[in-house]
Specification:
Elements: H1 2-18, H2 21-37, H3 41-58, H4 61-77, H5 81-98, H6 100-116, H7 120-134, H8 138-154, H9 158-173
Helix pairs in contact: 1-2, 2-3, 2-4, 3-4, 4-5, 4-6, 5-6, 6-7, 6-8, 7-8, 8-9
C-alpha cells in the first residue's frame, strides 16, 4: 500500500501543477481508500475531506457522493455513528442521482447504524431499497448481503442472517 500511496501523492503533485483538480480529487479519494483498507481511518478521513473540498469546488457530484460515503464508512469503523449516519445520508442523496449503485451500497452502511440503534423498521426499509439498487453489480451485491446478514443478526434473526451470508458466499465463489 505504501508504494501505491507514494505514487498517488506524486500524481497529485503533477496534477496540481497542471491544474487538473478532478484527477487530484480522484487520487485523494484513492489514497483515502487505501488508508481505510489498512484500518487507518483518521488518515482516510483526512484524504476524503480534501477530495470532497475539491469535488464541491469543481462541481463533481460523483466524487462528492462517493467520498462522503467512504468517509461515512471510516467514521462507522471508528464507532462514530452519528457522524457516519450524516455522511451516509449526504452520499445517498447525491448518489441516488449520479450513481444509484453507490446509493444502494451506502444504504447498506446506514442500515447497520439504524440496526445498532434498534431502529429495525428503518434499517429493513433501507435494506430493501438498497438491495434493488445493488443487485445487478455482483461484487457490491455480495458485500451488501454481508451487511444485510449483520442487520439480521442484530435483530436476532439467525436463519435470515445465515441465508444472507450464504448468498454472499455463493457470489464470492463464482
Amino acid at each position: 500500500y505504501e508504494e501505491a500511496i507514494e505514487q498517488y501523492q506524486k500524481a497529485i503533485k503533477i496534477k496540481r501543477e497542471i491544474g487538473d483538480k478532478k484527477s487530484q480529487g480522484l487520487n485523494l479519494g484513492n489514497i483515502g481508500s487505501m488508508y481505510q483498507n489498512q484500518g487507518q481511518y483518521e488518515k482516510a478521513i483526512e484524504q476524503y475531506e480534501e477530495a470532497i473540498k475539491i469535488a464541491i469546488e469543481i462541481g463533481d457530484k460523483f466524487g462528492e457522493g462517493i467520498n462522503f460515503g467512504n468517509m461515512g464508512d471510516s467514521f462507522y469503523k471508528l464507532n462514530r455513528l452519528n457522524e457516519a449516519k450524516e455522511l451516509f445520508q449526504k452520499a445517498i442523496n447525491i448518489c441516488e442521482v449520479v450513481l444509484p449503485v453507490a446509493a444502494g451500497v451506502f444504504m447498506g452502511g446506514i442500515s447497520l447504524i439504524f440496526a445498532k440503534e434498534k431502529n429495525f423498521k428503518e434499517a429493513f426499509e433501507l435494506l430493501e431499497k438498497g438491495e434493488q439498487q445493488v443487485k445487478n453489480d455482483r461484487e457490491e451485491y455480495g458485500n451488501f448481503l454481508c451487511k444485510k446478514g449483520e442487520v439480521f443478526l442484530l435483530n436476532v434473526q439467525r436463519e435470515q442472517a445465515i441465508k444472507s451470508l450464504e448468498q454472499a458466499q455463493k457470489i464470492a465463489d463464482e
